[in-house]
UniProtKB/TrEMBL annotation:
This is NRDE family protein. GO terms for biological process: Golgi organization; protein secretion. It comes from Psychrobacter sanguinis. It comes from the Bacteria. Pfam families: TANGO2 (PF05742). The lineage of its organism: Bacteria, Pseudomonadati, Pseudomonadota, Gammaproteobacteria, Moraxellales. InterPro entries: TANGO2 (IPR008551).
């Protein structure tokens, strides 16, 4: 997953809105978002290493009644996402899968901050990790950014340092701020959190394939032509026939009213149509 927008604690009824694109080699085996049978996790799955790039804690409630009708689930509000860090340093065979950073948090009981502080950072290739629940969200990487709680606001995380002003990051920030957040606000004003009202705009933003001009490219050590191919929010270009945006996801956390103090996580993912073009 290569870019994520997080609107954190901007709306009382919806304290988390997360939009993300996962970019990956097309040949890497992947299962789209589903309820895992072996762990209390809902999310996509990297079938090569067994972890996930984005998921929520969700546990099926075992009962004969629920099995026969609509399945019932319990949640504890935990969610997490991981992105790779692009700095030219290659992963080594002895490093652990970054996807386990997500699964370990979702299946554990440490607070987001406590979990982020105890990670053995150098056991993994470069990453940006966001872990959270309904009260706290924490960002950490193993490239010099310590475990830090997110402040209320809109955060854009890609494959560099948090909130680094890459072209794709600033374009996503601007489009989410101008095209998505106002629609969410309007929806919540009517106390309905109607995703049909704002979800199409969010998918549209995540499918933005505009690339940066030469002078807007970051310097990460990659050749300029490759850097440009990777510079769009959604990567879909003939220059990268074997790599691109594969999964687009939107995660929200809904807070109950005074009569219902619980929270509900909703994760919606779709496979990007890039795969059908090849």
């Amino acid at each position: 997953m290569c870019i994520t927008a997080i609107a954190w604690q901007l709306f009382d009824e919806m304290p988390l809105v997360l939009l993300s694109n996962r970019d990956e080699f097309l040949a890497r085996p992947t299962t789209q978002a589903h309820q895992w049978e072996d762990l209390p996790i809902f999310g996509g799955r990297d079938d090569k290493s067994g972890g996930t790039w984005l998921g929520i804690h969700q546990q099926p409630l075992e009962s004969e009644t629920s099995k026969q009708t609509n399945p019932l689930f319990s949640q504890n509000g935990r969610w997490a996402a991981v992105l790779n860090f692009r700095d030219g340093v290659q992963a080594t065979p002895d490093q652990r899968s970054r996807g386990e950073l997500v699964t370990n948090f979702l299946t554990g009981d440490l607070s987001p901050l406590a979990y982020a502080r105890q990670i053995e950072l150098q056991a993994y290739a470069g990453f940006n990790l966001i872990v959270g629940d309904d009260k706290q969200a924490v960002l950490v990487n193993n490239r010099g950014y310590p475990a830090t709680p997110l402040h209320s606001g809109l955060h854009i995380i890609s494959n560099g340092q948090p909130d680094e002003a890459w072209f794709k990051s600033e374009r996503l920030r601007g489009r989410v701020r101008q095209e998505v957040l106002p629609l969410i606000s309007e929806s919540l004003q009517f106390h309905q959190a109607d995703k049909e009202y704002w979800l199409p705009a969010a998918w549209n933003v995540l499918t933005d394939t505009l690339q940066a001009a030469d002078e807007q490219l970051p310097d990460t050590g990659m050749p300029p032509a490759l850097e440009q191919a990777l510079s769009s929010i959604c990567i879909d270009t003939p220059e990268l026939p074997n790599y691109g945006t594969r999964t687009q996801s939107i995660l929200t956390l809904l807070r109950g009213d005074e009569d219902n103090s619980g929270v509900e996580l909703q994760l919606v993912s779709r496979e990007y149509a890039y795969l059908a073009k090849k």
